[in-house]
Specification:
Blueprint: E1 11-14, E2 26-31, E3 35-41, E4 45-48, E5 70-77, H1 87-95, E6 104-113, E7 116-117, H2 123-133, E8 140-142, H3 150-159, E9 164-169, E10 179-187, E11 190-200, E12 206-212, E13 215-222, H4 228-240, E14 242-245, E15 249-252, E16 257-262, E17 264-265, E18 271-272, E19 275-280
Parallel strand pairs: 1-10, 6-8
Antiparallel strand pairs: 2-9, 3-4, 3-5, 5-6, 6-7, 9-10, 11-12, 11-15, 11-16, 12-13, 14-15, 16-19, 17-18
Domain ATP-dependent DNA ligase family profile: 96-186
Protein name: DNA ligase
Family: Belongs to the ATP-dependent DNA ligase family.
């Protein structure tokens, strides 16, 4: 008897030094910049993000072009006019129904086929089953491996400003809920030099600002990549340049600079997912 079920998705590791690589035992595919989603069409149709039951949220994905007994893994995205993923619009749609734009489900794996768990099969075989099972529509599409070099593919992805690629072992099993080295992501990071203009009193985060002409503009907070030694070594410097404070933050003058890597910019002018790299002396 089939059941309605949530399967914790297999997670990605970062490729070493965030560099693409070529190997006969792997292939690469585009990493769509959206929200992970499990489409479960068992006894009852369900949609699951990593943390929530999202079935009611996305009516455009109801009546999927797959038979009963099928569970798919993939990414939901809102596409812009150029056919590129708009993460900000996708994320806003998850948080609020106001002016939510329709999403497209980009399927890259199949976990159940005809009611049978196929996660133990090699990825290449699961890809074949995915092609046989899913009839593509405007709302449901298949993510296919590219033919050729992952290194060359990543260069093209960067040229077009896309998020990155995923390099997967062809014989990899689907490891439920595991962050596995069988799937490695390579992200198209941007880099920038920014000012540290404050720090949180409660969390290990810094306020960042960006120089535009003669003025310095706030661009949000940074939590990633800040080591304990970096925090401790800079605290005396931060104290000496303190310019004020609020309930949650201590503000400092725009003197200390650092280099960060980041995904892109939100329309509001906030930097998306900055990661500390090094101080600029």
């Amino acid at each position: 008897m089939m059941k309605k079920m949530f399967i914790p998705p297999m997670l990605l590791q970062y490729a070493k030094n965030n560099e693409p690589f070529d190997n006969d035992s792997t292939f690469a595919e585009l990493k769509w910049d959206g929200i992970r989603l499990i489409v479960s069409n068992m006894d009852v149709f369900k949609l699951y993000t990593k943390n929530t039951n999202a079935t009611v949220k996305y009516p455009e994905l109801h009546n999927p072009p797959i038979p009963k007994g099928t569970i798919l893994d993939g990414e939901i995205v809102v596409l812009d006019e150029q056919g590129r993923a708009d993460f900000e619009a996708t994320n806003a749609g998850l948080r609020s129904n106001k002016k939510r734009k329709p999403v497209v489900f980009m399927a890259f794996d199949i976990l159940y086929h005809q009611g049978v768990d196929v996660t133990g099969l090699p990825l290449v075989r699961r890809k074949q089953l995915l092609e046989e099972t899913l009839m593509e529509t405007e709302q449901y599409r298949i993510v296919r491996p590219i033919k050729g070099s992952a290194r060359d593919f990543f260069k093209i992805v960067c040229q077009h400003g896309l998020e990155g690629i995923v390099i997967k072992k062809k014989d990899s099993k689907y490891e439920k809920g595991v962050r596995s080295w069988s799937w490695q992501k390579v992200i198209n990071y941007q880099t920038a030099e920014v000012y540290i203009t404050g720090y949180s009193k409660k969390e290990h985060s810094w306020l960042l600002s960006y120089q535009e002409g003669e003025s310095v503009r706030s661009i949000g907070t940074m939590e990633l990549g800040i080591s304990k030694s970096a925090r401790e070594s800079m605290m005396p410097v931060f104290h000496s340049f303190k310019s004020g404070e609020s309930k949650d933050y201590v503000f400092i003058k725009p003197v200390v600079r650092c280099r960060v890597k980041y995904r892109d910019w939100y329309k509001s002018g906030i930097m998306r997912l900055p990661v500390f790299e090094e101080f600029i002396v």
